[in-house]
Amino acid sequence: MPEEFDFSELRKYLQGQMDMGEEDLLLDEPWTLTRKKSAVPAGAPRPANPMPQMQRPANPAPFPHHSAPANPAPIPQQSPFQSPVQSAFQQPSFGAPAQPAPSPRPAPAPKLDAGLTIAPRAVKKTTAAYELADSIGAFYDALKTDALYARAANVVRYEGPEHPRLLILLAAPKPGEPAGAFFQSPTGEMLVRLFGSLGYAPESLGVTYFYKDAPRALSPILLASLRRMLTKELSFIAPEIMITFSEPLFYDVFSKGKNFNDLAGTALDFNGTKTVSLVDAYAMTTDKQLKWLTWKVHIPRSGLFTAAK
């Protein structure tokens, strides 16, 4: 039996769009959407079913049945003494069959002196300077001495209150964007309006960056070092929720073992910090479809923002 689909929710959505009028059905930011007054009088009846439904035929055509032929071709008989597969090498007619070649014996293991002991190899674990920092200022000063940022002209620092309700994590500072002025940029202002619609005041938002200078291709070992740096930084910032933006950043933070399309908008955990991953904030600034995807699908999926409404 073919699967039946329920289009009731889609029908309600399209009916709501029809009520808003023909112009500007979708505003640029869905979190600022306002409903227009309907041109239809209040007492006028509405059509009961604005969208036609597909009717199933009463007597669907039966599926064709393939019957076996009346006189199938006879199967050739095979002699019981005939081998189904001819060997590449024929056995001689007389005499015993050839014996398989003996397999070589493994070499004996070297014997060790009973009085000889092998000491375990000592692995020395070094502690990075930033891991010993006791304040967020000392943490950033220690990053400048780390091999990853030794040649960086500047190490971008956290911008926001001491303990933000929402921490925005971006991949790296955008070229040409003034340091410490993210929330005055077009992308920052858009995010302020978005989370303001969820009940988060502008002064409760903070922003930091995974790469403190510029994004670059790193080995898994160096990416693990950046994750440890982020963990140490979060111990000082202590946000309620951290929000990462963009699919590449998702894999930098959570590694390749997770799938962004499956987990975008879901409630995650990064070393004890509640985390939600969303699409690229800079691309969302000019893309209306990404805004609707974030507002209608990803943000409701997490379940972390309902209490702030």
Write up what this structure looks like:
With 309 residues, the protein is of the alpha/beta class. The protein contains eight helices and five strands, in the order ααβαβαβααββαα. It has a five-stranded mixed sheet with strand order 2-1-3-5-4. Residues 22-26 and 84-89 have low confidence and may be disordered.
Secondary-structure blueprint of this entry?
Blueprint: H1 8-19, H2 136-143, E1 166-170, H3 186-196, E2 205-209, H4 220-237, E3 241-245, H5 247-254, H6 260-263, E4 268-270, E5 273-278, H7 281-284, H8 288-302
Parallel strand pairs: 1-2, 1-3, 3-5
Antiparallel strand pairs: 4-5
Q: What's the total count of β strands? A: 5
Strand order in space, largest sheet? 2-1-3-5-4
Q: Give, in order, the helices and strands.
A: HHEHEHEHHEEHH
Distance between the termini: 44 Å
Instruction: Name the quaternary structure.
Output: single chain
Shape: flat
The main β sheet shows up as:
5 strands, mixed
Q: State the secondary-structure class.
A: alpha/beta
Number of helices: 8
The helix content is 25-40%
Task: Return the average pLDDT rounded to an integer.
Answer: 77
Tell me the fraction of residues in β-strands, as a range: 5-15%
**Low-pLDDT ranges:** 22-26, 84-89
Q: What's the gyration radius in Å? A: 34 Å
